[in-house]
Write the structure tokens for this entry.
Amino acid sequence: MIYREAGQFKTSYAADQAIFPIVQDRVLVTLGILAAFVVPPLVANEYWLQAVLIPLTIYALAALGLNLLTGYAGQLSLGTGGFMAVGAYAAFKLATAFPWLNILVVFGLAGLMAAMVGILFGIPSLRIKGFYLAVATLAAQFFLVWLFNKVPWFVNYASSGTITAPPRTVLGVMVTGPQATAPVRYVAALGVLALFALVAKNLVRGRMGRSWMAIRDRDIAAEIIGVRPLRTKLLAFAISSFYCGVAGAELVFLYLGSAETLAFDITLSFLVLFMVIIGGLGSILGSLLGAAFIVLIPIFLTNAPHHLGLALPVALQKQIELMVFGALIIFFLIVEPHGLARLWQIGKEKLRLWPFPH
Amino acid sequence: MTEVLAGLVAPFADIASSPRFFAEVLIGGVAAGLMYSLVALGFVLIFKASGVFNFAQGVMVLFAALTLVGLIERGLPVAVALALTVLVMVLLAFAIERIVLRPLVNQEYIILFMATIGLNFFLEGFGEMVWGANVKRLDVGIPDTSFKVAGVLVNRLELTAAVTAAVLVTVLAVFFQKTRIGRALRAVADDHLDRRVVGGGAGRHRGRHHVGRQERRAVQPFAHRPQGAACPHPRRLHVRPRRHRRRPHHRRRRKDRRGLLGAFGWRRDRKLVRLCDRLGVPPVPPARLVRRTNHRARMRATMRTHLLRWLTPRRSQGVR
């Protein structure tokens, strides 16, 4: 009744090809984005911003990057943590070597660096597929982390072996460093996410995204119709790594403040992969939903017994948390193997018919 | 340069100067490698038999060990505890197949992989909740002592583990290459669609390794062929004239249900056309394979050709 495209006529190609062709969608999404920018900095306290919303936006960016590679181009990758580490260390080196450089430019350059490394480690994808490719990208993960651990140049010869976000301003506001407030960092991270989500949405709707999907669905057929596998796959690796690199730089500069290689180990790669699969492979919205799921569920599970007035022993609560988390993953996969994004889509289709059954 | 050379030469010099120590290190290394092969064996067994890459393997091992230790701690003899642990793990496997893997049949590998990661979390929490999170000690009754063979120290525990690993690897290899069930499982794990084509419901044979008579019969014509051979022996492609006997009606019905191979004896060509459509192949067999212009034989020849092609691992065809 409310959600119906009846009467909305498209009179131009631009209107027909809009990302959200239906007015209701447009209004809802615009309101949602505005609310995401305005409400949390005004309302949320330090804990919510620092522990939930900032990591959520950053992980969502990383998940977006991996989804471009795994969901759209069909190249399974476990090197996300490594590519994020490249972004983080490159951003650190650039920010300390060129202090006058705008920090957002630094993020972009760090992303480019990660993209180059991604291309390098994407080369095996021409030969191997599926789990075997995942293992090959695992090499990127371990090699890069090892490299940053071993070569002191990457940490500017700091004896602690950690990289620290230097204080930098954008338009006169402190964005990184210890003095930067949580709302500012949140808005910065969200701005980057919004921009990159828009870019990703347009990438996958265009020629590039279609060639990725062709390669994913059947590579030989794609090759026959004229998609170049080398270019397409490496481009997927490059763009995905770019996203992951920016996310890694943000992880250190906007969230953690200082980090060592431990922050970028294999668990991070798995975490981002969870987000992509739970959210929905091959969906931009799914990346965001998956990130929200993986970040929010553990926090919810930790706090739920407390709010319910149950006093559980710490160890038992931890175990129950693990069990419920695992069971939820399985439950969602069984209910909808195509992820939360698919559930969202089904909901929208149902809403179109509501309240009439047919 | 000389330093590098010296570094290259030094290990060999050491080997020459103390062969005994070298032998000990070598044996230790081989034993450790065999242990790893046991771990890998678990992955391979499940992947080959069901096409699931089981991420929860490690946690399942942990769960088994926790159960065993927990039972021993409660005063049970080792043998009884071992038997009970095996029972518990079998029940667990049944439960996993029923609850987790069966609803996910015919999904992509990555989805199944993800489900086993969820299982990993669940079992980790569950095992700790049931048996406690403190560090435990496992004593299976094999002494951790060493004895000397020709002056070389050999650890008894390592030796036992190595022998066990070697035996298990051999048994598994024989199982998958020589037995009917093993071959059928491999064929079944190769492609979900094939499995449905050759008969049997889509919901079977994942996790649990039960193969019905129909499956075996259906897969058997192809099982003689070593995997990886792109084309079977041409003689095997011949469509043998089948002798037909009048059968009671209900027998016929059962035969109809026996997968598509059986069904084609009864001219269910619509089904064949639909199947060929799904496989993306034209429903016409290569001309050289058709011995008779008989419609039925032609259909069966088509089926066989396509089945053979689709039962061949994708890698050798260069697809996927």
Notes: The longest strand of chain A covers residues 173-176. The mean pLDDT of chain A is 87. Chain A touches chain B at residues 70, 76, 129-131, 220, 270, 273-274, 277-278, 281, 315-316, 318-330, 333-334, 337 (CB under 8 Å). Strands of chain A lie at 163-164, 168-170, 173-176, 258-259.
